Amino acid sequence: MTTQDTLRPVFTETFPPRMEPGMLYVSIPYRTCGHLCCCGCGNEVVTPLSPAQWSLTFDGENVSLSPSIGNWSLPCQSHYWIREGRIRWSRRYSAAEIDQNRARDRRLLDLETTVPEPGPPSRLRRYLRFLRP
Questions:
Q1: What is the pLDDT of residue 101?
Q2: Is 122 within a domain?
Q3: Among 8, 83, 98, 120, which residue is least crowded by beta carbons within 10 Å?
Q4: Phi, psi at 10, each rounded to 5°
C-alpha cells in the first residue's frame, strides 16, 4: 500500500468488510469513523465521535476530524491530521508524550461518562415556582 495524502468521505451506516485505501467511512448512527492508516501500513483506524474523543466537520464536500489521529497502538505509530479531506502529517511523539496524551484522553473520557450528582435547584427553577398560580 502507498501513503495517502487525501481521504474521501463515504457516509454509510456500517463499515464494509474490507476498507478501501483513500476512503474515510463515516457512520452517523454509530457515531464512528473508520479508515485505513494513511501511512500505508494497511491497519484499520477507528475514531469514535464524541465530545471527549473526535469531532467531525463536513463542509458539503470534504471532512475534517479533530483532534489529530495518533496511531500509538499500531507498529507504525503514525500521526496526522485530517483537514478538509487532506492528510497533514505531524511529528512523531516520544514515548513520554504518547503516555501523556493517553492519560489526558482517559481523563476526558472519564469526565464525559461521569454522571454529575444532583445539585440544589437553580435560581431559574426557584423563580418559576413563584410564577405558578
A1: 80
A2: no
A3: 120
A4: -130, 110
Average pLDDT of the segment spanning 6-10: 97
Query: What are the φ/ψ torsions at residue 9 (nearest 5 degrees)?
Result: -70, 140
Sequence-distant (≥ 6) Cβ neighbours of residue 29 within 8 angstroms: 13
Dist CA 123 CA 39 (whole Å): 54
For residue range 107-116, what is the model confidence (pLDDT) as tens digits?
Answer: 877 776 666 5
DSSP 3-state of 104: helix
Query: Does residue 68 lie within any of the structural domains?
Result: yes
**Count of domains forming the chain:** 1
State which residues form the domain around 88. Answer: 1-93
User: Please, which pLDDT band fits residue 125 given cuts at 50, 70 and 90?
Assistant: low
Lowest mean pLDDT among 22-26, 54-58, 63-67, 113-117: 113-117
- Count of CB atoms situated within 10 Å of the CB of 111: 11
Residues 87 and 69 sit within 8 Å (Cβ to Cβ): no
Assess if residue 35 is contained within a domain: yes
CA distance readout (Å), 14 to 7, 97, 113: 18, 33, 24
3-state class (DSSP) for residue 106: helix
Answer yes or no: is 65 within a domain: yes
